[in-house]
Design brief:
84% of the residues lie in helices and 0% in strands. The chain has 4 helices and no strands. The protein is rod-shaped and about 125 Å long.
Length: 195
């Protein structure tokens, strides 16, 4: 009877243990699936962080280059406006300032053509000048005083336009930087929570 009890207890205990093993096996499968899912989430989030960082670095580099162009353009416009507004400025100085503005990549083609036309209007054709006049000094910028008003207005409008564009671009850069930082933080949180 004792042996019968021991065999029955052992059989009962064996059944309970097998049931527990089956339950644990099921838990292991569920946990394995969850681990695979979390590993996939971590991999995706890490890849997203890497891709977003590359895009952000390119955006930041583009911003820096464009910002530098705007800064140089605004400086050149300030210089040209100052030279043209000066009553004592000389022609060479005015021409140099206008040529710098003309060479800027952000200046629209129509404005470049207007600057070229302005620069060429006061220069006589070489064929029309007698040989002795070729070696004479050029008159000072008094001719520019009355003619430069339209050009100064155009340069001031360009300066206003560039200033606004730079301001807008700076604001967009701040928004893009902030959005990237938020997204990177969210992805970092996802990775941390998945671990």
């Amino acid at each position: 009877t004792n042996a019968k009890f021991s065999i029955e207890d052992a059989t009962k205990q064996k059944g309970e243990l097998e049931a527990r093993i089956t339950g644990f096996s099921s838990d292991i499968e569920v946990a394995g699936s969850k681990i695979e899912e979390l590993a996939k989430t971590i991999g995706t989030s890490e890849s997203d962080v890497k891709d977003a960082t590359l895009v952000r670095e390119k955006e930041a580099a583009d911003y820096m280059a464009t910002s530098l162009d705007f800064g140089e353009s605004l400086d050149a416009l300030d210089g040209a406006i100052l030279v043209l507004k000066k009553k004592s400025g000389n022609i060479a100085q005015a021409q140099e300032a206008l040529l710098q503005v003309k060479a800027l990549p952000l200046v629209p083609e129509a404005s470049k053509r207007a600057l070229v036309a302005f620069l060429q209007q006061g220069q006589p054709a070489v064929e029309e000048m007698p040989d002795s006049q070729l070696f004479n000094e050029a008159p000072e910028a008094y001719g520019y005083e009355f003619q430069s008003g339209g050009v100064v207005d155009m340069l001031e409008k360009l300066k206003d336009q560039f200033s606004k564009q730079k301001y807008d671009m700076d604001a967009e850069e701040l928004k893009a930087k902030h959005a990237f930082e938020q997204m990177a933080q969210q992805l970092a949180d996802n990775i941390e929570n998945a671990k």
